[in-house]
Amino acid sequence: RKELRIALAGNPNSGKTTLFNALTGAHHKVGNYPGVTVEKREGTRTRGDRQYHFIDLPGIYSLTAYSIDEVVARDFILDEQPDIILDVLDSTNLERNLYLCLQFQELGIPVIGALNMSDEAESKGIRIDEKHLSTMLGIPLVKTIGPKGTGTEALLDCIDEVSAGKHKSDRAVNYGEEIETKLENLEKLISADAGFVAKYPVRWLSVKLLEKDSNAYQRLKEHPNAGEIEAAAQESVEWIEKHFGKDAEIIVSEQRYGYIRGAIQESVQTVKEVDFSVT
Ligand code: GDP
Ligand code: K
Ligand code: MG
């Protein structure tokens, strides 16, 4: 029996736990993440010759570890390396939710997006062309309504397809020529050590170094050439900030939002509802 480990992740209140319950039914246990009081929910679902092991991660807005929830979610993904990240997205708030989604994509772990709250989106007149959005983001999307369990079978189908290698997440944010040149250099330096590459996603770490993420610098210490790479990263940050006249992490986040807005503009329409009710 093939077992797949799928982490449910996403913003707080996007419907992760509701969807987790719909996917696993009564077959779950609740514990704690090691060393902290953050609740850990794990459950399984069996279908055909497959066993799906789901982990309900705490809600987060970013993979930059500021809060305990972010540390827990981020450490789990980096250290436990689930087979798939199931990103539960609030369809009524896509711009903010996709900001995290783009960061998941940089981790090199296959991502599936659940367009959850699709009932609320519908009633607010938010029309999502999921095929087009999926193409633009480079990840498969499935519409879901957590409390009704709508879309859970389609999600399992999608998980099967992803694990069979059918959807290659090939798209990633392009941060612009200057930053991409710096990233390329960092990626090359980091890739020189096979052991480190096996442990950490190179693209993600390179971006995080430019974002001056202290946890990323901490993890970089495990690299045999940590000193050289850290110096190169700091030099890149200084160059970028001088060139653009802004904080490097702000430029990175602006590029992400630009990318998201472009995708949303092309695939999401908000129509004003006409009230036909007779008064
Ligand atoms: P979490 O913080 O991501 O775990 O979110 P929860 O699963 O706790 O859900 C937050 C709230 O949204 C709860 O009141 C859920 O009942 C509700 N909810 C979750 N999914 C949906 C959905 O697809 N449609 C609607 N209308 N409500 C939902
Ligand atoms: K709600
Ligand atoms: Mg929850």
UniProtKB/TrEMBL annotation:
<feature type="binding site">
    <location>
        <begin position="116"/>
        <end position="119"/>
    </location>
    <ligand>
        <name>GTP</name>
    </ligand>
</feature>
<feature type="binding site">
    <location>
        <begin position="10"/>
        <end position="17"/>
    </location>
    <ligand>
        <name>GTP</name>
    </ligand>
</feature>
<feature type="binding site">
    <location>
        <position position="21"/>
    </location>
    <ligand>
        <name>Mg(2+)</name>
    </ligand>
</feature>
<feature type="domain" description="FeoB-type G">
    <location>
        <begin position="3"/>
        <end position="165"/>
    </location>
</feature>
<comment type="similarity">
    <text>Belongs to the TRAFAC class TrmE-Era-EngA-EngB-Septin-like GTPase superfamily. FeoB GTPase (TC 9.A.8) family.</text>
</comment>
<feature type="binding site">
    <location>
        <begin position="35"/>
        <end position="39"/>
    </location>
    <ligand>
        <name>GTP</name>
    </ligand>
</feature>
<feature type="binding site">
    <location>
        <begin position="56"/>
        <end position="59"/>
    </location>
    <ligand>
        <name>GTP</name>
    </ligand>
</feature>
<comment type="function">
    <text>Probable transporter of a GTP-driven Fe(2+) uptake system.</text>
</comment>
<protein>
    <recommendedName>
        <fullName>Ferrous iron transport protein B</fullName>
    </recommendedName>
</protein>
<feature type="binding site">
    <location>
        <position position="25"/>
    </location>
    <ligand>
        <name>Mg(2+)</name>
    </ligand>
</feature>
<feature type="binding site">
    <location>
        <position position="24"/>
    </location>
    <ligand>
        <name>Mg(2+)</name>
    </ligand>
</feature>
<feature type="binding site">
    <location>
        <position position="22"/>
    </location>
    <ligand>
        <name>Mg(2+)</name>
    </ligand>
</feature>
